[in-house]
Structures are given as C-alpha cells and as structure tokens.
Amino acid sequence: MKTLNLGKWLLVLLVATGSSTAMAQTFKIATIAPEGSSWMKDMRSGAEAIEKHTEGRVKFKFYGGGVQGNDKQVQRKMRTGQLHGGAFTSGAMNQFQRDADLFAMPMVFNTADEARFVRRQLEPVVRQRLEEAGYVNFGFAAAGFAYMMSNQPLQTLADLKGRKVWIPEGDPIGFAALRALGIAPVVMPVTDVMTGLQTDLLDSVTVPPVGAVVFQWHTRLKYITKLPVAYVYAALLIDQRAFSRASAGDQQIVREVMEGIYRKFDQNGVIDNREALQALLGNGLQMVSPDVSDIKEWRSIVYQSHRQQAESGVFDIELLDRLETLVGEYRSDQSAAAP
C-alpha cells in the first residue's frame, strides 16, 4: 500500500512539474527596429515586467535590426515555429489578415485627428479579425503620416513619371494606387531600401519622417512633398499557437503589459513624427508643395483604385464603405463647428 501511495504521489509530482514546464514560454520576436532604438528599449522594459509578474514563466527574446530577414521571411519563420511573432508596419500586415492595413490606404485621411476618429470606431473590428486569423495583437501604434521623399522635387503627376518609386513588398493596395497614377513602382522589402537608394535602384520613397530618420534614408534624399500620403501604424503580432502555450493568467499579464506599451507608442508616435519632419527640414531637405488641382486629381484616381481593389476582394468593401462614411461625418462635423 505504501509503495502504491508513493507511486501515486510521484505521478502527481511528475504531472505537476510537466504542466509547469508546458506553461513556460519564451516568445521569439523579430523586428526591423534597430537595436538601441526607443522601441527596442520600451519592449525590453515590458518584457522584464512580464518576466517579473509571471515569476519567470514568460520571457521574450527580441531580434532587432532586421537580422531575421524581411517581413515575408519573418512570417515564414512564424509558420514553422522558428519565430513566434514580429513587429510589423501596416504595409505588411495584410499578409496576416486582408483588412489589417485598412487605415494605411493612400490618401484616405487628411489629418491625424481624422484617422484617430475612424480608428476609434473600426480598430476593434480589425483587431478582432486579426485574432480570428490566429494572431494575438495588442493595439495599433501610429507612426504618423508618410510623405513622398525624393532626390528630385515631386509636385505634379508629370514629375512622378519615370521616377523609381519604392513600394513595400506585400502591399497590393499601395501598388495598385501607384499603378493607377501611371507609376511603375519598384517593389522591395524595407530592409533593402537603403541599398536601393545607394545604388540608384530607387530615387523616391513614401515614408514617415521618423522612419526616414531611424533608417537614415534621408541621407540619400533632398525633397519632401507637402502632402500626407498614408497614415502608417505598427503592431506586434504573436502566433496564437505559441501564445496559447502560456497559462490563461500569464496570457492576461502579457496582454495588459503590451497593450500599455502600445498605447504609449500610439500617443507619442504622431508627435515624434512631426518632430522628425522638422529635423529633416533643419538638416537641409526642402519642402515642395503640389498644386491643389493636382492633389484633387491624385485623390480621385487613388479613390477609384481603392474601390476596384475592394470590389475584387483584396479587402472588405463593407469596411471601406464604413471608413468613408466616418471620414465624411468627421469632416462635416468639423465644417459645422468652424467659425
């Protein structure tokens, strides 16, 4: 009997130990953010808090500076389990769920306030769709507007003809918009852009000023076109299969800490982007303004491109309708409130 009881308790101990091990998880996360950047510092700080609150059961290992490859390579490694997640900008997020880059469509918003108004209504929908697609996320962090930057002034459609304009790999909406404008975009991953600028494979990019500074692209550019082209944001995505290995309580801790960090990123992103724009101008880049008539023409062409993309199933046309309705409501309210 004593032997039987000893065996029973040994079995219980083994099961308990095995369960504890199964609940422990180290998330391997890739990002193009350079080591030493504020993003990396804040994420590492969050990881330390998570490790402390979970008593070491959940840890993070970050691979910064694009050492794990471009967005597609990171996604592939997530599928095979080599990585568990990554930080992605909006242009790459539609490869995880087709509507995830909804707010980054070119020439949809005029101001950051417009974008925030629409996000408050539709971001919960987009985030839920990412979760349903199998990707845990912690909110979107705005980086602010991307602007066209080039080594030649871009003020008219004619100026754009023949330019070697970069488009991120895996961005069908942006690609279609450029094609509609009569531009043959050069597709390459973010990690290759600096080389492209150095070797004249590229001469024009659309990027938030903060991105141009962080990646040092501004050192190869001379002009900024005064037109907010696309509202850029980022998200941390973790494969649900890996995330589910942590206990429910530990998952909640991860969500609370990371959502807090992404709220901070979101609050600071637009401000940082504006400051980066002023820094670029202070460092010698020149701002050029397109004609109002040209802007209207560009917006009209791009709007039709978005419609065609939605109708062909690239993204949800109902979400596009809701977005356009909300933008219209916001602009009407602003006009009515104006003195």
Low-pLDDT runs of 5+ residues are: 1-22
Could you state the CATH homologous superfamily? Bacterial extracellular solute-binding protein, family 7
Strand content: 15-25%
In this structure, how is the largest beta sheet organized? 9 strands, mixed
Can you give the mean pLDDT? 91
CATH class: Alpha Beta
Q: What is the general shape?
A: globular
User: What is the H/E order?
Assistant: HEHEHEHHEEHEHEHEHEEHHEHH
At the third CATH level, what is the topology name?
Answer: D-Maltodextrin-Binding Protein, domain 2
N/C terminus separation: 89 Å
* Rg for CA atoms: 23 Å
CATH architecture: 3-Layer(aba) Sandwich
Count of individual domains: 1
Question: What's this, in brief?
Answer:
This protein is an alpha/beta fold and 339 residues long.
List the helices and strands and how they pair.
Layout: H1 2-23, E1 25-30, H2 38-53, E2 58-63, H3 71-80, E3 85-89, H4 90-93, H5 112-132, E4 135-137, E5 141-150, H6 157-160, E6 166-168, H7 172-180, E7 186-188, H8 193-198, E8 204-207, H9 209-214, E9 223-225, E10 230-239, H10 240-243, H11 248-282, E11 286-288, H12 292-311, H13 317-337
Parallel strand pairs: 1-2, 1-3, 6-7, 9-11
Antiparallel strand pairs: 3-10, 4-10, 5-8, 5-9, 5-10
Helix pairs in contact: 2-11, 5-13, 7-12
Question: Your description of this structure?
Answer:
By secondary structure, the protein is of the alpha/beta class. The protein has a single domain (22-337), classed as 3-Layer(aba) Sandwich (D-Maltodextrin-Binding Protein, domain 2). It has 13 helices and 11 strands. It has helices spanning 2-23, 38-53, 71-80, 90-93, 112-132, 157-160, 172-180, 193-198, 209-214, 240-243, 248-282, 292-311, 317-337, and strands spanning 25-30, 58-63, 85-89, 135-137, 141-150, 166-168, 186-188, 204-207, 223-225, 230-239, 286-288. The strands form 2 sheets. Strands 1, 2, 3, 4, 5, 8, 9, 10 and 11 form a 9-stranded mixed sheet that branches. Strands 6-7 form a two-stranded parallel sheet. Helix 7 (172-180) links the parallel strand 6 and strand 7 (186-188). Helix 2 runs antiparallel to helix 11 (248-282), helix 5 (112-132) packs antiparallel against helix 13 (317-337) and helix 7 crosses helix 12.
